[in-house]
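During the second half of the funding period, the structural biology subgroup turned its attention to how the target accommodates small molecules. The most pressing case was guanine, which had performed well in the primary screen but for which no bound structure existed. We therefore specified the complex as follows and requested a full 3D prediction, including the ligand pose.
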Amino acid sequence: MEERFAIFGDILYADEDMEIREFKDSYLIVNGTKVSGIQRSRPNGMVVHDYGGMLVIPGLTDLHLHAPQYQFAGLFMDEELLQWLERHTFPEEGRYADLDYAKKAYSIFTSDLLKSETTRFSIFATIHKDASLMLSQMLEEKGFSGYVGKVNMDMNSPDYLCEDTRDSIESTLSYIEGMKRFENIRPIITPRFIPSCSPGLLKELAGISKEKGLPVQSHLDENLSEIEWVKELVPESRNYSDAYRMMGLWGEEKTIMAHVVWPDDEEMNMLENRNIFVAHSPSSNSNLSSGIAPIRKMLERRINVALATDVAGGSSLSILRMATHAIEVSKLYHRLVDEKSRPLTFREAFYMASLGGGRFFGSTGSFIPGYDADVVVLDSSSIHTTLYDEISLAERLELYAYRCAGRPVAAKFIKGRKVL
Ligand code: GUN
Ligand code: FE
């Protein structure tokens, strides 16, 4: 018999139609690792976690972030991607060859992530296998569930952060073996991006992904100079997406492509009906002057879109903050780029933050019965406004997202287990 318990509070979640469902003063019933339903009456004979007056929402998903970059989140924001990588990002990632440094830095990262609204993620570590396994172990011990990738880089990278192609493959295989000891943190194939991986490496990684049924994550169409560079590196490709396709890395397995700020028409077609999730990172795209991704157009074409912090391109671990950033940049897009592209609404942003990304992990990111019991509790009681008692729960969440995103959450459950 699975253990059943209830979580009491002001419950809300996004459903598959992107509508927000709300249940004031209600009980979310959890059966083992899954949600079994929501009811108004107090359930008998069950432990109740009482969060009366607080917002109870599904755990949010961060579909793209770099754990080793967390230490400089909020610094070095005055450059564009390629210079930023070379001057700041690569030197910091190089430090993870040292396991003592990795332990110190990843301890800070994992404890801050625990306090954030995120329950699921897909993380880039570094090229270092041992540090990446250490990070995975820390995340597993904190109760998280998600993907961590050992990064592959075998060209156009500084010596201290560049692998020999064979070593890169061997170390990836050994990483995948090492990850078998974890229950909830799983490996994901992680070529950094086309410029830092040789065609030979990319093709072998595609083979490993296929043979082992492992998902893939990388970067796509983030920055105009990067896109030009990819054209030079793979001159036979029609565009950046086509370069991945030529290497066997175009949604053969479940795939995350981060950014997708500058897809051309053909790439938009290529993203349709594929097992590819776009990780929209509005904060990073602003900080690194990358541009504004055409998210409204993607939603209209039913392309899978989720939100991501892209720490440290993004400075915050808060996905609720990414939701408000996504809305803000969509308004600039509407005003400055394409009047016909309607701004995103809060309802749509909340969907992308929860169920939109949750779908990458299976039945996650909503309180529909049978979904994973990933729950986050937000204490909105300190918001001072005369309107507090007049507004709906969805409006209370919107208020919280704009005014309080990034504050430590009041409680967190992952797969039915209380982790905070
Ligand atoms: N493209 C390749 N590497 C990176 C990275 O670390 N961050 C971002 N934002 N883009 C990248
Ligand atoms: Fe990134």
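Two results from this model are relevant to the next phase. The mean pLDDT is 98. The first helix runs from residue 81 to 94.
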